[in-house]
Structures are given as C-alpha cells and as structure tokens.
Design a protein that fits this description.
Low-confidence stretches: 1-9
Mean pLDDT: 91
Number of helices: 13
Largest sheet: 8 strands, mixed
Radius of gyration: 25 Å
Strand content: 15-25%
Structural class: alpha/beta
Length: 413
C-alpha cells in the first residue's frame, strides 16, 4: 500500500460544459452559488437567462461568477450566424435549468419557444444533450393539476426533474416546491453522468463503527469514520441502485438517494440488517463492527473511589453480521462483500476472512492508514485472484468497487 501524498483530485465534472438556464423566480439567488459549485467541480458554465430571471438577479452577477457573457435574448448578434439558440447546446454536455418556474415548465411541456431559454431547450440535440430541470415555485403552484400534468409530460419527453424539496418558501408558506440547494443540485448532476452499472438493482451497505456501552457515559468503539461506507452508498446510488445505508454513530451527511438507518451497537446493527438482507441483491459490509462487548452494562456511571482499584470488565463476543447474512438460505441471501481493516498482512488476513465467511469478495485495507482520512487503497480478494485499487480519494475507489461488483453480480433473480 503506497503512502506518498495524493495528487490533486480532479473535479467530479472536469471536462463537462454545462448550460445553466435561469427562469423567473426568487430561487435565482441560489443559481449564483450553483454556478460556483459547478465550476469548483471542474465544469465550464454558460449562463442563459429569461427576462423574468433578470428581475431577480443580474446578468452582471452571473457573468462575473462564470467569466462568460450571459445570453439573455434570441436576437443576440454576437454569434457570427446570429443563432445562439443553436450554438449554445452543440458543445454542451447538459442543459440545467435552475430555477425552473411553473410557467417555464408549461412552455416546455407545450413545445413553445417564445424566448431564448425555451428556444434552446427545444433546439438542443436530445440524443446527446440532456435537459434537467430544478423546479422552484410556491407549494400551491407545484401541486396544481396543470403543473403536475406538465411535469408528467416533461418526464415522458425525457426531461429529468431534480426535486423539488419541501421546506420554507419565500412567500412564508411551507411545503413542496422549494428548489434544491446548490450543493444538492451539483451532486445530482455529478450522479447523472455516472454509468448506471446497477440500474434496477438493490444494495444494502453498513458503515462506520459500532459503540458498545460500558456504562451510560462510556463505551468501546473504534476509529472508523464511516467515510468509505458512505462513499460506497453514494456510488451505488449514482450507479442507479436502490440503496439502504445502515450507519453506526458517525457525523456524516446522508448520501442523496440512500435510505439511512442509524444504529449504535453491533446487536442493533444486526437487528437492522437481518430483515433487510433478503430484500436486497447486494450486501456490502463496510462497517467496522466491534468483535466484543462488555458482558454487562452498568446502570450508572462507574465512579472512582480513590482507592486506585480498576474495575474488572468481562467481555462476550458480538454477533458476526457478515457471516450471519452469508449463511442465509440461498433464496434470501444477497451477494455479499466483506471488508477487512487490518494493521498488517492485508492480503493474507483478507483471504482468510474470505474463506471463513464463505463470501465471494473481501475488500482489504490498512485500517490505521485510512481511518478518518479522505483517501484509501483497497485490495479486492477473491478465491481465484487479487486486484489492487491504488490509493485515491474514497469516492473514486467506491465507484471502482461498485463497477467491480456490477461485473461480478449474477443476473437478477
């Protein structure tokens, strides 16, 4: 396992060119941060604004943020052929309209093209320039039957709708219709471009440490941050899978698209995993589950009495979650992936775990070299081969692992 410093991580949208459209709505203020987020991930951004959008945020702001002249009219003569509605999408990897107002969605659903943004959406080469919309409007407008009909028509036409979310609205009301935040939209766009290796499949992931209480304020745990497991859950969701994430006590945001279940101890994790395992096709046991727990938990905090005496702790073995799932009847058993966090001899210990647990794949890594870090190096150990995934950021490794799992999965049941 290499330990030299990592090279700079390429942006998740490196090499992508995005047309960012703004239609009228107060959520235009979020578009400024969205443009920055897209550029932080390596994308180039060309902003196109409707007249209504210009009432909420100025083209000067968006031009300053992107370094590109903002297009606001179909009659813009700066292009030699005077056809900005054609030129803007020919080199674009996607058109993202954020915010997409109720009126703008109605225009697209009806195929109307009265201004530059709807015009370029209609004129884009659909087979290679996808259209994504981030709806933003009052909750009554979003729930109106006409808007819902338009949303259904847009989806049927191949448009991807991102959101909306529920929450506080500028009008003072609360409900569905709020535009996703800039970071959420950036993550959604990153996910959109990922290969859908696991489309239609289901993946159960465990992540993080467990906590085995000694008394009400103390316990036994480990240094696992959960970052690798959360990255795997994100990568599986990006690859099109239905993802359930069972997480030990960690302070990490839930990956978009994953259903999260929080647990504390190893027994709680087992209780959460067992009924879920038969409902999923893949089980990735990334969590660093405590091997032992105190035989008894004190009812109150164990206090020092000044005598220097140290309390004696007896331990019992925790259930083996991976082995338990791997022993389920064939009709209920998911395709199991184990993790081996070792301090030495990674391949030897991972191979021993592979044989002991009876699973098709064990992923080995050096625990002390990765706990809490954003990078890792993995060893994929199988009965007939060993594959090294060189040190990289954990999301990159998670995507590589998800692709490897997809290659090895049997056909759907």
């Amino acid at each position: 396992m290499r330990t030299e410093p990592l090279p700079p991580v390429a942006g998740l949208l490196a090499g992508r060119h995005i047309v960012l459209g703004l239609s009228g709505g107060v959520a235009c203020y979020k578009a400024a941060e969205l443009a920055r987020e897209l550029q932080r991930e390596g994308a180039t951004v060309q902003v196109v604004m409707t007249d209504a959008a210009c009432q909420f945020i100025t083209p000067a702001t968006m031009q300053a943020l992107t370094g590109r002249a903002v297009v606001t009219s179909q009659w813009d003569l700066r292009a030699p052929n005077a056809m900005p509605h054609i030129n803007l999408t020919r080199e674009a990897d996607a058109v993202l309209v954020a915010p997409a107002s109720a009126d703008f969605m109605a225009q697209l659903a009806q195929g109307r093209a009265g201004e530059i943004l709807s015009l370029l959406c209609l004129a884009r080469p659909r087979e290679r320039c996808p259209l994504l919309l981030a709806p933003a409007m009052n909750r009554e407008m979003w729930s109106h039957p006409a808007t819902q009909r338009n949303a259904a028509q847009l989806r049927a036409d191949g448009t991807v709708l991102l959101g909306p979310a529920a929450g506080d609205q500028a009008c003072g009301e609360v409900g569905d219709g709020r535009m996703l935040e800039a970071t959420e939209l950036c993550d959604e766009l990153v996910a959109f471009f990922q290969p859908k290796h696991l489309a239609g499949r289901s993946v159960l992931v465990t992540a993080g440490p467990t906590f085995e209480p000694i008394d009400p304020v103390r316990g036994i745990t480990n240094r696992s941050s959960g970052k690798m497991g959360f990255a795997i859950a994100r990568a599986a969701a990006e690859a099109g899978a239905r993802v359930t994430l069972v997480a030990g006590p960690v302070a990490l945001a839930t990956p978009r698209g994953a259903l999260r279940i929080d647990v504390g101890s190893a027994r709680e994790m087992l209780d959460a995993v067992l009924p879920l395992a038969p409902q999923h096709e893949v089980f990735v046991a990334t969590a660093a589950v405590a091997d032992w727990r105190p035989a008894e938990e004190a009812a109150h905090k164990i206090k020092k009495d000044g005598s220097g005496a140290v309390p004696a702790l007896a331990f019992v073995e925790n259930p083996d979650i991976l082995a338990t799932v791997a022993r389920l009847p064939a009709a209920q058993r998911p395709w199991c992936v184990g993790f081996a966090a070792e301090s030495q001899d990674v391949e030897r210990h991972a191979r021993a775990k592979l044989q002991k647990k009876g699973v098709p794949l064990v992923v080995g890594n050096l625990g002390p070299a990765t706990f809490g870090r954003n990078d890792n190096a993995l060893l994929l150990v199988e009965a007939d081969r060993t594959t090294e995934l060189p040190r990289a950021d954990k999301l990159t490794l998670a995507r590589q692992l998800v692709a490897a799992i997809a290659e090895r999965l049997p056909r759907p049941r």
